[in-house]
Every structure is written in structure tokens, then in C-alpha cells.
Amino acid sequence: MLTIQLSDEQATALRAKAAAEGLSLEEWLQKLAEQRPPASGQPRRHIADVIRENMQDVPPAVMAGMPKDGASQHDHYIYGWPKREV
């Protein structure tokens, strides 16, 4: 058996949600645990394929303006940190 520690406020909020459905807290949690997200029916794809698909509509002029060292210097471009020596 798994024991989960909750604050009094959290326990009260969960009991209220369970009561709104006419269930005890234990019954409500069991119902949640048995629910599974529906399968999408689509096979999983490699992230590189997803990125390639998302980038295919980016205009060539925009792609030409992208930094060539974006992967190795991502901290510089995201956070403004100084570029690292490579």
C-alpha cells in the first residue's frame, strides 16, 4: 500500500472534489488511478522528424538569418550569457 502525505488544505480540497461526484476520497482516487489517457492510435515519432516537419515551412530568408552555432552556443542565444570558447 502506498501512503501519500497531504497538507490539511490539500486533503480538504480532494475530499470536496470526491464528494462532488458522490464518492469517498478513496473511491475517487481509485477511479482516477484506473483512468488511462486514450491511445492516440499514432505511432511514436522520433523528435528529429517532428522538428524537421515543424521547420519545413520556415522561409529560406529566416533560416539564413539563424545562427550557425545555435546548438553549441544555445546559452548565449537563450539567456544572453557570453559565448563559450569552442
Your description of this structure?
This protein is mainly α and 86 residues long. The protein has a domain at 47-79. It is built from five helices and no strands. The protein has helices spanning 8-20, 25-34, 47-55, 60-64, 74-79. Helix 1 packs across helix 2. The mean pLDDT is 90.
Short description:
The protein is mainly α. It is built from 5 helices and no strands.
How far apart are the termini? 52 Å
**Largest sheet, strands/sense/barrel:** none
Number of strands: 0
Overall spatial form = elongated
The helical percent reads 40-55%
Taken as a percent bin, the fraction of beta residues is under 5%
Rg calc: 24 Å
- Structure classification: mainly alpha
Number of helices: 5
Entry keywords:
single chain, 86 residues, mainly alpha
Helix-strand layout with pairing:
Elements: H1 8-20, H2 25-34, H3 47-55, H4 60-64, H5 74-79
Helix pairs in contact: 1-2
